[in-house]
Amino acid sequence: MTTDVPAVVAHLGEEFLAQVYGRTYRHFPGAPGRFAGLLGWDDLNALLTHHRLELPRLRLSAGGEALPQHAYSAPVTTRRSTVWHRLRPAELHRHLAEGATLVLDAIDELHPGVGHLAQELERHLRTGVQVNAYASWTPEEGFGVHWDDHDVLVLQLEGAKRWRIHGATRQAPLHRDTDVPEPPPDEPLAELVLNAGDMLYLPRGWWHAVAASEGVHSLHLTCGMQTTTGADLLQWLSEDLRRETNVRSDLPRFGTEEEKTDFVRSLGDLVMKQFEDGTLLDRFLTMRDATDRARLVPSLPYVEGVPPDPSLVVHLVTARARLHRDREGRVVLMAGGEEWTFSPQAAPVLALLVDGGRHRLDTLARAAGLRVGQVAHLVSALVDGEVAAVGRAE
């Protein structure tokens, strides 16, 4: 049985986006097998076995503090004098049995199934997503009562975990902020147990504490969602306005009071003109989507371009690509910080790729009435731009 990723995303539909997202927590009970096939203990063991995972990507946490790396690993010096840390399974087991929590950051970059989940969430929520894995065995709280500077969606994969949710004490706190949130009240706003198959959404800034206190070990994923705030909009606008002479000009440090007033007023007029433009927010969000970091997926062995092989499968490695027509009717693709312009005949190919999924070259060619070689040439440009990848069908 495999995880139905579209069903997971379906829980985050219009009602969720309008009434829950960024506002309050939501518990999504589910059947125990809902996440079967996504990530299990064997998968986690394999990742720890076959990857050299260094601190802080792999860490053990207890009482809100990271354990020193030497407590559960030993340094190994290669013959080229590089050093890496090899896990010591017995010491790893001991610390976990004594209450430490195992954390593996960005597991979406290591595990295909989790990576697919992250990309679908990115496509739906139009924001970057990083997935971390947490495993714990005891009622000890690995992190204490804390808050995150990003929204999270929690998927309970195995076992159970108790969550104490205290709510927020500062609205929309940031990683770089002018103040820190006040401590939360002692009594939680809600207390619930996530069992295998359950999901939980928490907005950023909500204090919470988590423990595997139900007598069973726990394995869960936390999908952290990148914030896009007014501060980001203002930062982008300041960069965008560098095209204006007044913005590039030196401040009139030694000018008269009238010159200083005129200078500040001119900057204010420029900014207000932008704020009065009803397209400002859409332009900013389009830029965010178009510059979304693509995921790392090489296309070996096709280092000299994509061959016209009908059976090759292609997919985009960014979930937030933007597609539009220019004034001449040509198709413009914006993805991964790059921009490509194609003839109108390429529109069906690009539309299928932007919608997601993996597509054979011959399927794309039929959709557009093009030859397979023409589609292969188009895809080669996207592979060179690091926003697409090709391979054999599974």
From TrEMBL:
It comes from Streptomyces fungicidicus. Keywords: Iron, Metal-binding. InterPro entries: JmjC_dom (IPR003347), NO66-like (IPR039994). This is Cupin. SUPFAM superfamilies: Clavaminate synthase-like. Residues 85-242 form the JmjC domain. The lineage of its organism: Bacteria, Bacillati, Actinomycetota, Actinomycetes, Kitasatosporales. SMART domains: JmjC. GO terms for molecular function: metal ion binding. Its cofactor is Fe(2+).
